[in-house]
Amino acid sequence: MRSNSTQPLVRHHDGVPVRSLLTLVLCAAVWIGVGEAVAAPSAPAQRIDQAEITRYASALLEILNIRAIANQRERGAAPTRLGMLREQADAAIAASLADHGLNKDRFNQITAAVAARPALERQVRQHVMRERLGYR
């Protein structure tokens, strides 16, 4: 049975409409400053194995959670505190990346690869969904 609605189906991430995992990836990458709006890396990305995909997906979820908390804090903060709050969020993101064996440059390389390769995006999406459901 066909729907009469002309609006596309929209998934949600923590109550925020998201059209695809790629949107999440690009938003996270742009916010943490891992490159010029996720520009393609200057050198070809190294091979990305399954373990790195898993670590990337897990780091991505943590970064999105850090960003959501940072957004809430920034909304109610005095303008003089915004810089400090952003520095705290950046430090938390850097720590999360390090905990997952990544750095900003490698995260950016993987983000560019995910943006360019639909099969890789599907793999990352599967890992994200598994982790969101509590399967690791």
Give your account of this protein's structure.
This protein is mainly alpha-helical. The chain has one domain (11-36, 48-132). The chain is 61% helix and 4% strand. The protein has a two-stranded antiparallel ribbon. It is elongated, with a radius of gyration of 16 Å. The N and C termini lie far apart (36 Å). Residues 1-13 and 34-44 have low confidence and may be disordered. This is DUF4168 domain-containing protein. It comes from Sphingomonas montanisoli. InterPro entries: DUF4168 (IPR025433). Residues 50-124 form the DUF4168 domain.
Number of strands: 2
Secondary structure class reads mainly alpha
Q: Tell me the strand percentage band.
A: under 5%
| Overall shape | elongated
Order of helices and strands: EEHHHHH
The Cα radius of gyration reads 16 Å
Tally of DSSP helical segments: 5
Mean pLDDT: 77
Which stretches of 5+ consecutive residues score pLDDT under 50?
1-13, 34-44
> What's the helical proportion of residues?
55-70%
Q: Reading side by side through the largest sheet, how are the strands ordered?
A: 1-2
Kindly report how far apart the N and C termini lie. 36 Å
Number of domains: 1
Largest sheet: 2 strands, antiparallel
Task: Label this structure with key terms.
61% helix, two-stranded antiparallel ribbon, mainly alpha, disordered N terminus, 4% strand
Characterize this entry briefly.
It comes from Sphingomonas montanisoli. With 136 residues, the protein is mainly alpha-helical.
Secondary structure blueprint with pairings:
Blueprint: E1 11-13, E2 16-18, H1 21-31, H2 50-75, H3 82-99, H4 104-116, H5 118-132
Antiparallel strand pairs: 1-2
Helix pairs in contact: 1-2, 1-4, 2-3, 2-5, 4-5
